[in-house]
Design a protein that fits this description.
The protein is α+β, with helices and mostly antiparallel strands and about 220 residues long. The chain contains eight helices and five strands, in the order ααααααβαββαββ.
Length: about 220
Amino acid sequence: MTWEQIIENVDFTLTDLSVMTIAFALLLSFVLSLFIFIIYRTSYKGVMYSKTFNLTLIAMTMITASIILAISSNIILSLGMVGALSIVRFRAPIKDPIDLAYLFWAVGTGIICGAGLWMLALISTVVIGIILFVFAKISTVKMPFLLVISYQTEEANDQVFEVIESEVSGYHLKSKSLSGDNYELTVEIRDKKKTASIVNKIGKIEHVNSVAMLGYDGDFAV
């Protein structure tokens, strides 16, 4: 059988997609994407929250659902859309791996809604959302703080460590460097209650140029 004969035997008409089916799929995809939007907003722990990225999750869910509805309606149309979408390239940088998970979650939810698996879409979205929210709020370890100090003399070095040892029970020396006449010291501490007093006391030491406290949980935050 030739390709011409195969194409002639294919039914190019769309399958019966009622207006109610389309409306319900898009409505459900919107509601679930709104749930994803809320989970991302409330559990975000990065440096700068991007509302644009979060709105993209809603758009991607609904667009994906629309595409799946179109693909499921006609086999020839599905082949054409696969070919057309394969040439699309997305080059937006993903700074946080969790953002990639949210993008995949949004696309997956749209696919399930478009495929008509309503209950699977609802249950999977709710379960995934609860898991992400709970683990984002639970801190398994205390967030470390990095104390960065710039000073000029060895006497100042001794006084800095005297303050640190008197304020916290434990610390870790991360790095110590010398540039010209200036020393730079980086110390890790985990006692949140003492961070303010340490900065104030070290800042008053003679020959200390600067002192900064940074919180670190995967991203630096002053």
